[in-house]
Amino acid sequence: MSKKMTATDAVELVKKYSEEMPSKAAAKVLNDMAQVIFVKKEYDAFSSRREGNDIYALIASEAENPTEKFESEDEADKAVTNHPKRYLNKSGIEAIDIIELFTSGITGGAAFNLGTAVKYLARLGKKTKNVQEEWKKVKWYMDRLIDAENVEIQ
User: Fold this and answer.
1) pLDDT tens across 46-93, in order?
2) What are the CA-CA distances from residue 91 to residues 86, 88, 145, 153 (Å)?
3) Looking at 3-113, which runs of residues are DSSP E strands?
4) CA atoms within 13 A on the CB side of 141
């Protein structure tokens, strides 16, 4: 069974989720991605070129020199498998909902790489104090998304 959602609804859901994210830079990236992918429908341009891709430029910049620092780490939450706080906001929206939203309509490695990048953005500043390492992970998965060649299984 598939759920239908308008582009506006998708953007609003991402916006609502991102309002409670500790990292304002990661929230900006998610909101910008929502505009490009859902409203402008420019997934191919977003995922295939780096020149002029402001979203990628911000990710790369934060991976090199993060603009934010976070001091708290919830050790108890690290062991939680289902519904950990780092993936849930006060509105009850989970990162998995946002990940599935961004990866709907794409498959294979592209879905995995984009979904994983979104996961790291969603928890940025919540799981670990090492923000630069989290941004590097986002960038690594975005590089995989951008540089991947499609594999056709015959």
Assistant:
1) 776 567 788 988 999 999 999 988 765 554 445 445 556 556 677 778
2) 13, 8, 30, 42
3) none
4) 18
